[in-house]
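Narrative summary of target 7.
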Amino acid sequence: MASLRLLRRHRRVTPLVDTPSAYSPHAVTHMRDLLVGLVLVVLGVCSLGSSPAQAQQVRITGAGASFPFPLYSAWFRKYNRITPGVRISYQSIGSGAGVRALLARTVDFGASDAAMTDAEIAQVDNGVVILPMTAGEIVLAYNLPGIEVLRLPREIYPLLFTGDITRWNDPASSPRIQT
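Modeled conformation, tokenized:
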């Protein structure tokens, strides 16, 4: 799951957000609402100590996970087009680098496939807001001559990923694999 991490000026809040599928008809509207909230938070932060002329052009920068980059790019491109005076940009630099950039305060928000740890959150004055934004799947592909459908029981998946099972005819897995 990719999440946005926002700097928070006042108190630590971890909302639970019911996010629709990125490809559902309501996702764009839902994302617009989330981005409006993001913009309001960042505007509040930016407006502290800035003159009215500076507050008219807002630049929001983010960095982090590469998985959500195509989705964020589409959302931010559309948002930038329909919202004058606000520019949101995002760099795909990897989850860990995104968290480090957020901790270093070189970005306004970061995205990560893994949740920030309590220790990382504690490094940010006044905490962070964590918003689940999108999720992905892992698909196992296979090329076994003569087998068109392969059904793997769930307990096989971790054994494949850890390397405990390295062959499809492994004695540990073959009685449990249905073809």
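The chain has six helices and five strands.
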